[in-house]
Amino acid sequence: MSKPVEFYFDFGSPTAYLAHCKLNDLAKQYGAELVYEPMLLGAVHKATNNVPPISVPAKGRYMLVQDLPRFIQRYGVEFKMNSHFPINTLKLMRGCYAAKQLGCFDVYVDVMFRALWAKGLNLGDDAIWKETLSSAGLDADAIIALSTDEAIKAELKENTEKAVKKGCFGAPTMFIDDQMYFGQDRLDFVEEQLAER
C-alpha cells in the first residue's frame, strides 16, 4: 500500500472541495491512505501573511470565471458556486473533530463539502447546518453540541498550528512523506508520486 496522503483542508475553499473529490478517486486507484487534516484557513492565512484569492480582484475573477470551471469539467464533479461565499467555517471545522469522536467523520466531511459546493447551501445559518446534518442521517444535536466543547476547540487550534509548522499557507495542501503540494491543480504531481509506489 502507498504511504499516506495528508490532506489539509477547510470546507470554505472551493478548490479544497475539488481536491476532496479527486483525491478520493486517486486513493482508490492507487491503494493510498487518505488522511484528512481539518484546519482553519483564516487562521492559516493570518499566521502566514497570506490572503485568499478572492480578496485580489483580478485573481478572484480569474479563479471563479475561468480556472475553477476548467477543473470542474476535467474532474466531472457536481459543482454550484455558493452565493453565500465566503462563509465563516469555524463551527463547521470544529464539527470535524466532533464527528471524529462520534465515529462519523468521513460521512460528515463529504456531506459538508457537497452541501457547500454541490448544493450551494448557506451553512453559516445554524438552522440550515442542522437540517443538512439531519438529512444525511447524522446526529445533528450531538455534533453541534460537541463542537462547542473546549477540547474540540483546542483540537482544531492545535491542528491549524501544526499545519502552519509543516509549511501550509493555504488550502488545499497535501503532503506525501516530506513533499508538499499546494492547490488542487497540483494533483497531477500527487498522482505521479503515488504511481511510483
TrEMBL record:
Enzyme Commission designation: 5.99.1.4
TM ranges: none
Gene3D superfamilies on file: Glutaredoxin
InterPro entries associated with the record: DSBA-like_thioredoxin_dom, GST_Kappa/NadH, HCCAis_GSTk, NahD-like, Thioredoxin-like_sf
Enzyme superclass (EC): isomerase
Gene Ontology terms, MF aspect: isomerase activity
Keywords from the UniProt entry: Isomerase
Catalyses which reaction(s): 2-hydroxychromene-2-carboxylate = (3E)-4-(2-hydroxyphenyl)-2-oxobut-3-enoate
Keyword Membrane: no
Annotated DSBA-like thioredoxin domain residues: 5-195
Family: Belongs to the GST superfamily. NadH family.
Protein name: 2-hydroxychromene-2-carboxylate isomerase
